[in-house]
């Protein structure tokens, strides 16, 4: 026991991010669901023309330029948008504003591990409810738990499955707390749940530029909810959480929806091919609406494959938690990267 820390901080493990090698290394990186394509050319243009004078002053506290670009692109009013330093920060804002000891934070598992980490920091009560084996939502149990905050990632990580808008609607209408719909992978999916934000005062949808917009290094995410719900989050937000560079670059990326959509289409085509190739190698492959695949080797041990791929310069994600420790989460790369992965796995399966 370290006497400097609060007891819950002392007791908690801390989030373990995926391995992040040097950007110029030769490693094929399929472990953090980054987009294999570069950001929009509009982003480079902004960087080239960036005026250092913009850095002398504090940035706009609401990331107004970026917020307007989101408003335009998604057809939602600017005052229904809050911007975060990555969507991770927005998740943290929700927890800080809504969770405390004696209040419950509820989510189905397996899912994004950060929900647990953030809740532990706040000393709120965690209620984890397992998905069924085929990743159907435990709707009755989630409603029964009635959390102050309920997190649903859709598409979910690491499974890649989508929760239907109908099920989310049932959840939203039966919960007295906040329903957070984490849409980090929505750019690769066939549906989204944005309409529920207008329908329900307790629904907040969270998006990121890290996956669909190829800007994981920029750290920019945002949420959409009614201004009443956002008002609590604004109180706990750092005043200048978005730096001037991120705000301007983000606006350029958001305004280039055509480029983002074209990259997403390429990723979706590669996803179909990679899934077929892995099935050929006798992997079970779950249907995915995200830019990654959850796969289970039927013949070899998942951790062995993770280690063997790593030693051959290919990083995928292995989660040691029960329920997923027999599976791998593999980001969809370029067709060339996926080909190297499949050939390497093919050798390892012999
Ligand atoms: C990647 C991811 C995020 C975090 O995205 P950032 O905007 O980079 O912080 C949030 N939720 C889920 C489910 C993710 O996979």
UniProtKB/TrEMBL annotation:
<comment type="subunit">
    <text>Homodimer.</text>
</comment>
<keyword id="KW-0032">Aminotransferase</keyword>
<dbReference type="InterPro" id="IPR001917">
    <property type="entry name" value="Aminotrans_II_pyridoxalP_BS"/>
</dbReference>
<dbReference type="InterPro" id="IPR015424">
    <property type="entry name" value="PyrdxlP-dep_Trfase"/>
</dbReference>
<dbReference type="InterPro" id="IPR050106">
    <property type="entry name" value="HistidinolP_aminotransfase"/>
</dbReference>
<keyword id="KW-0663">Pyridoxal phosphate</keyword>
<dbReference type="InterPro" id="IPR015422">
    <property type="entry name" value="PyrdxlP-dep_Trfase_small"/>
</dbReference>
<protein>
    <recommendedName>
        <fullName>Histidinol-phosphate aminotransferase</fullName>
        <ecNumber>2.6.1.9</ecNumber>
    </recommendedName>
</protein>
<keyword id="KW-0368">Histidine biosynthesis</keyword>
<dbReference type="InterPro" id="IPR005861">
    <property type="entry name" value="HisP_aminotrans"/>
</dbReference>
<comment type="pathway">
    <text>Amino-acid biosynthesis; L-histidine biosynthesis; L-histidine from 5-phospho-alpha-D-ribose 1-diphosphate: step 7/9.</text>
</comment>
<dbReference type="InterPro" id="IPR015421">
    <property type="entry name" value="PyrdxlP-dep_Trfase_major"/>
</dbReference>
<comment type="similarity">
    <text>Belongs to the class-II pyridoxal-phosphate-dependent aminotransferase family. Histidinol-phosphate aminotransferase subfamily.</text>
</comment>
<feature type="domain" description="Aminotransferase class I/classII large">
    <location>
        <begin position="26"/>
        <end position="345"/>
    </location>
</feature>
<keyword id="KW-0808">Transferase</keyword>
<keyword id="KW-0028">Amino-acid biosynthesis</keyword>
<dbReference type="GO" id="GO:0030170">
    <property type="term" value="F:pyridoxal phosphate binding"/>
</dbReference>
<dbReference type="InterPro" id="IPR004839">
    <property type="entry name" value="Aminotransferase_I/II_large"/>
</dbReference>
<dbReference type="Pfam" id="PF00155">
    <property type="entry name" value="Aminotran_1_2"/>
</dbReference>
<dbReference type="GO" id="GO:0000105">
    <property type="term" value="P:L-histidine biosynthetic process"/>
</dbReference>
<dbReference type="GO" id="GO:0004400">
    <property type="term" value="F:histidinol-phosphate transaminase activity"/>
</dbReference>
<feature type="modified residue" description="N6-(pyridoxal phosphate)lysine">
    <location>
        <position position="211"/>
    </location>
</feature>
